[in-house]
Design a protein that fits this description.
The chain is mainly beta. It contains one helix and six strands; from the N terminus they run ββββββα.
Length: 107
């Protein structure tokens, strides 16, 4: 499970991936989601917020109800308040931003 510990999308999410950078969304009704898969894109009705993982990711195998079985990612994230998620809605722009930010962090 991913824990978004602050920001507009604070909460717990059951997902398969825990990337270094993560887009989270909130729609007009207040419903939140995370875009953990490479091909995920935000809906027109969703605002986008950017989060960064703290530390290394983990994983856990869950053998629960029929729709809650398999390997799930574990990670804790904090909101990058200074990043305008609306500018990173497009997947190509998002992926380029992630690679650039990761490269800058390593230098």
């Amino acid at each position: 499970m991913l824990k978004l510990k602050d920001g507009p999308c604070e909460g717990i999410f059951m997902v398969r991936r825990a990337p270094v950078f993560l887009r989270a969304t909130k729609d007009y009704s207040g419903e939140t989601d995370v875009l953990d898969q490479v091909e995920d894109t935000p809906k027109e009705t969703e605002q986008v917020f950017v989060y960064e993982r703290e530390g290394e990711p983990g994983s856990a195998h869950i053998c629960g109800a029929k729709n809650l079985r398999g390997w799930y990612a574990i990670g804790t994230y904090h909101w990058l308040i200074d990043v305008n998620g609306q500018e990173l809605r497009d997947n190509k722009i998002w992926q380029e931003w992630c690679l650039k930010r990761d490269s800058e962090a390593k230098n």
